[in-house]
Structure formats: structure tokens, C-alpha cells
Amino acid sequence: MSPGIFLLPPIFHKLEQAQTILLVGAGGGFDLFCGLPLYFALRAQGKHVVLANLSFSSLDLSNARLLGEALYEVRAQTQADLRYFPELHLARWLAQTDAVPVYAFARTGVQPLLRAYQQLTELYGVDTVILIDGGTDSLMRGDEAGLGTPEEDAVSLAAVQMLTGVSQKLLVCLGFGVDTFHGVAHAQYLEAVAALTRMGAYLGTWSLTPDMPEVQQYRQALSFVHDRMPDCPSIVSSSILDAVEGQFGNHHSTLSTGDSELFINPLMGLYWAFDAMSVAERNLYLERLRGTTSLGEVTHLIAAFREEWPDIKSWESIPL
């Protein structure tokens, strides 16, 4: 059967053109882990993939190599006495088969982060940046009922929007539904997808399934890190993998969610892909953040926008 008859989302054509890819966890924490299935698949195709994450870790308390004011190189041999350091444990898991660095961006404003992106993309000759969002709140443009946790996603999106020398800038979301806990109305996420579709910026959706080797590696990596950070599991990745394995409803695989009612469901295992520049263009407050140098400034400016904007939407439920 000829491969040409398959209906492939446009994202795959764009990835086929890519040679050197910077795969970045846009929202911090464990977001990079949501990109691991892509990482393994792209590596298997012979692509050079550089891993990076906006970090919640106290990077200055480690001996990670400081490459710039907001850019650290984390390797398996990096030493740190930190309770929370997923980038380090991921680097150590990867080193079992391939010793590659995991770059960590400090939590900061747009300008220092932009300089870190510019340095890293020039170092490797990156032609494609893929921002990974664990969840879907990166599509919130600012006037929705709730924005989730917008600061880190917005800083990443603004920095990549201004980044030069890169031919493709993509955003991929995984974990539809997990942001309900943070006040995101997923009907408004779907409205954003519809708007991006009209802009020609929606690049397709596809499913993770439990038999995929890349999904199995994703699970192995997450388990390795959870074993070394038992008090700080990833609720998002745990929920995604539970959904991919066929769990449903109020299923809990970590103690961290014990006081919450979950809705684990098959939609959590879908990747959603977009042109990142169109997502940035649609955002109503992103331009205000361009000159920021700290995350505190970002938080203040987003809050000010919300107070000033005359038409904040009310909550909407999906009428199904």
C-alpha cells in the first residue's frame, strides 16, 4: 500500500522538512516530557533534536554549566542536592542509551529568555523550534473565562515570536482536559482551534496509543524520574499516560490528585499542532510582554490586561 494514500496531518510534512530541531517544554515543569514521544520518533528518522525546558528548578544551586544569563546545560553528571530537578533526572535516564544534554531555561522575562533561545539556536544551527505544552492553555489569547497558568507559556511564545534565523516555529499541545483544574473552559480552547483553523494555522491532531514504542519510552522516562522525585510527580503526564492506557473517569495514579475529582478520558492522548507564530499573533496581550526581564513583570502585565480588557468571556461548557 502506497504511503501517499494516508491522510497525514500537515505537521508531518513540516517535520519532514526539518533537520535540526529544538524541542522545548514551553510551560515549565514537566512540559518537556510531553514532547518525548516526538523526540524519540524524530530521532528514529535521523533528525538532530536538541532538548530544552523552561525550568522550575533552582538551577543556580546546581553545578550545571551556565552558558548565558538564563541558559544552563544539564548533563547526567551534573550535581545538585535539589528535591525538584526533572531535567537532571531526564538527562540521567537518557544517558543510559545516549548521553545528551537537557538545556534548562531560567524562569525569567522575555528578553533574557529570547537571548537564551538565540544562543542555543545559533549554537546548533536550529531550523525548527517546537514548543511543547503539557495541557492546552497556551492557546488562551487573554479574554477567556480562565487562562490556566499563562506566564511561562506566554514568555516562551513571545521569545520564540521574536527569535531570528529559524525557518519553522511550531506549537504542539498534549493533554486536552487537564487544565480544567486551573480554570480553563475547554469549549473556549476549541473556539481557539477553530479560529486558528480559519487562519490556516491548525496543523492537525493525532493520537498516542499504548503499543507505540515512543509511548512506552515516555512511560519509562517518567517512571524513572518519579522514582527519584517521589514527592513531585507530574500530574499532567500521569493523566495523559493513564488516558492512553485506557483508564477513564476519576482515576488516580498519583497521591497528589487524591483530593481532586479527575476526568481521565481518551482526548488527553491527542497531540494538537499549530503554527506558533499564528498563536502568538492571536494573543491579545503578548506584545505588552516583549520588554520584560522578570517573571514578576509578566504576571503583573497579564493581570493588568485582564483588569483593563472590557469583554472577558463567561464560562462555557462543551454542549455534548
Automatic annotation (TrEMBL):
Keyword terms of this UniProt record: Membrane, Transmembrane, Transmembrane helix
InterPro entries documented for this protein: DUF1152
Transmembrane intervals: 20-42
Pfam families, sorted: DUF1152
Protein name: DUF1152 domain-containing protein
